[in-house]
Amino acid sequence: MGKASKEAMDQLLSRPHVFFWLSIPFVLIIGYYGNEQFSLNFFDTYYVSSSRSIAIYISLGFAFFGLIYHRFLRSGYRLKKWLTLIHMFCTLDMAILFWLCHVWYSNTKDGMNSSIDFNTVFLVLLTIIGFGQLIFILHILSLRLGKSSSSSE
Questions:
Q1: E strand residue ranges, 54-148
Q2: Per the CB 3.0–4.6 Å rule, which of 26, 56, 76, 125 could disulfide with 98?
């Protein structure tokens, strides 16, 4: 890894709240672009929602993550780089990949890509995103428990 990329990675990991907050306008713009609805077939049940409402919910989630990271950094906690990186990758990168797959799926013809099961792809991506949120919760808990146990000794 080059010096410039290492510095950029350190900057990103030292202030992840800024990255989450800066991604909110992009999520809102993407949410208002394209299809009016988003549908997901999950075990013979269709979940249909407006793309705009999903964009608003994702933006609220990103604002929440940014606020939590910001509060922990202002309180003097040192974030664990690997857990922060895993959470950011699972949340931001998989959300972008999820959106790209949705756009590709909505633009293909019915029989053109019959070998690809998009519902399975969507569920795998949602599982990875969920795993990232579990990592976030574990990261926050480990920071709180680590600080309280070190301050009580």
A1: none
A2: 125
